[in-house]
Amino acid sequence: MKKIRAMICLVIGCLLVGIVIASFFQGRQNQQKGDYSARRLTEEEKAEVIKIALDNASVKGMLKGKEYKVHSTGMWLEENRTYPDATIYAWEDNWTRITMIDVLVDLDKKNVVGIVERPIGPVILKGATEGREEAIGIALDSEIVKEKIEGLEYRIEEVCAFENLKTGEKGMQVYIHINGTKVTYVASINLTERRVVEIAESERGIDKIGEEKSAKAVDIALDDPRVKEKMGGKQCIVTARQRLIGKKLVTDVYIEIKEPRITYVATVDMEEGKVIEMNELTSQWFSKAYETS
Fold first, then answer.
1. How far apart are CA 160 and CA 131, in angstroms?
2. Is the peptide bond before 225 cis (omega within 30 degrees of 0)?
3. Sorting pLDDT into bands at 50, 70 and 90, what band is 4?
């Protein structure tokens, strides 16, 4: 009896092993044909994707009369299936008009299954992993960055690689968020020269305290008698943007009046809790300044 049970167990075990092995090889076979989600394209497959894309009549029509370059090959999820994708940048009028074209390719059928076309600017940003820590170190060691953030609490919000399609310049951007505000400094870095080539200020990231300060600044501005006089009870759209003057946080409250169409900017000193300046915004520059301190 024991021998019979042992034989039965052995047979069942062999069947299970056979099923697992068969499933493994079937999975590999399916993966190799038509399923690219679980692996990277080979160099031969990348070359074939580019050839199929550039040979397509619709793509040829989009590129006609334009300069272009194939930027990369990758994967594109479309209707629950992953397709190989060729990304092409096409430009005309000396880079004033740039189009990014993603061409989805079915390597099994050797044809194009989809095309996505959209206009873009000359600078392309993408998430960065390689060189990330190096870029952060260069940014934080830079004197122009230290001048901006010294004495302030901050966090590294994001690190991106960038490429200027027009000039060919490549580098990294480190986003340094100032805690308790909506202000983020963007340090553009040349990794070859190991230096910060530019620093800009923007609003980026989520900061609850910063949001509360913007809301408070709007209330302060709308309660100011000079602002009320300019508004005159008219319908308006109100927005706010924070910036740092040295280490002092101010918030520019934009008050856009619909009729007559005019925009006023009330600058609120967050420490003093009052409007310190008011400007009338024109299409190019401030036309008037009202001292309200």
1. 10
2. no
3. low
pLDDT tens per residue, range 113-126: 989 888 887 666 66
Residue 179 has pLDDT above 90, yes or no: yes
- Judged against a pLDDT cut of 60, whether residue 91 lies above it is answered with yes
Contact between 203 and 219 (Cβ < 8 Å) = no
Over residues 199-238, the pLDDT tens digits come to 999 887 678 899 999 999 999 999 999 988 888 888 788 8
Q: How far is the C-alpha of 152 from the C-alpha of 175, rounded, in Å?
A: 15
In CATH terms, 208-291 corresponds, of 3.10.450, 3.30.1660, 3.40.630, 3.40.50, to: 3.10.450
62 Cβ neighbours under 8 A, 6+ residues apart:
90, 99, 101, 115, 117
Q: 128 is written with which tokens? A: 């960065």
Q: In angstroms, rounded to a whole number, what is the distance separating the alpha carbons of residues 97 and 91?
A: 6
Q: pTM of the predicted model, to two decimals?
A: 0.58
Phi, psi of 236 (to 5 degrees): -150, 160
Q: Is the pLDDT of residue 286 over 90?
A: no
Q: Residue 134: left if φ>0, alpha if ψ -120 to 50, beta else—which one?
A: alpha
Topology, domain 125-203: Nuclear Transport Factor 2; Chain: A, (3.10.450)
In terms of Cα–Cα distance, which of 89, 71, 82 is closest to 113? 82
Single out the residue of 175, 186, 177, 246 nearest to residue 208, CA to CA: 177
Correct CATH for 43-121 of 2.40.160, 1.10.620, 3.10.450, 2.60.120: 3.10.450
